């Protein structure tokens, strides 16, 4: 199952159709998942507005592992983002001593054979992310991955409340795989 997840996950994605259909609610975004050379299932990613591809608003390193129940656990890592900006030096990631697993921020993906897709979300609501320096938020997300689509929404809520302060307010971003 993990081989299928890896094959589908890798690539470049955009939500052009969604953004053009509803520009007031969805910016045009490009999302890239680059497989880290020399690893089985680790990816470096960048997410950027289409008009600012050189300056991503989000960089991430994730690693997919299959658990004994057949679920895919996507581990998230903290790292020094400047070192890999622009998807440079990716071969160094596997040696990066500053790579730290973000505890309680794993996304659990389960394969649905009836829909031929993976569905998932963060395990619990204890994934904490600082917002604007002085506010702590917890992350909630939902993701669906198919052979040529990746729908995802990330949202941040103030700790101890249900007040959303960042992330998608109008539903999932609907990414389509871009041709190579």
List keywords for this structure.
180 residues; mainly beta; Lipocalin; ten-stranded antiparallel beta barrel; 2 helices; 13 strands; globular
Could you explain how this protein is built, in words?
By secondary structure, this protein is mainly beta. It has one domain (2-177): Lipocalin. It contains two helices and 13 strands; from the N terminus they run H-E-H-E-E-E-E-E-E-E-E-E-E-E-E. Strands 1-2-3-4-5-7-8-10-11-13 form a ten-stranded antiparallel beta barrel. A hairpin with a 3-residue loop joins strand 9 and strand 10. The longest helix is centred in the first third of the chain and has 8 residues, at 2-9. The relative contact order is 0.17. The mean pLDDT is 94.
Q: Report the helical percentage.
A: under 10%
What's the CATH class, please? Mainly Beta
Please trace the helix and strand order, writing H or E for each element: HEHEEEEEEEEEEEE
Mean pLDDT reading: 94
Question: Summarize this, please?
Answer:
The protein is mainly β. The protein contains two helices and 13 strands. Helices cover 8% and strands 46% of the residues.
Map the helices and strands.
Layout: H1 2-9, E1 11-14, H2 16-21, E2 29-35, E3 42-49, E4 58-66, E5 72-78, E6 100-101, E7 107-112, E8 117-122, E9 128-131, E10 135-145, E11 149-158, E12 164-167, E13 173-177
Antiparallel strand pairs: 1-2, 1-13, 2-3, 3-4, 4-5, 5-6, 5-7, 7-8, 8-10, 9-10, 10-11, 11-12, 11-13
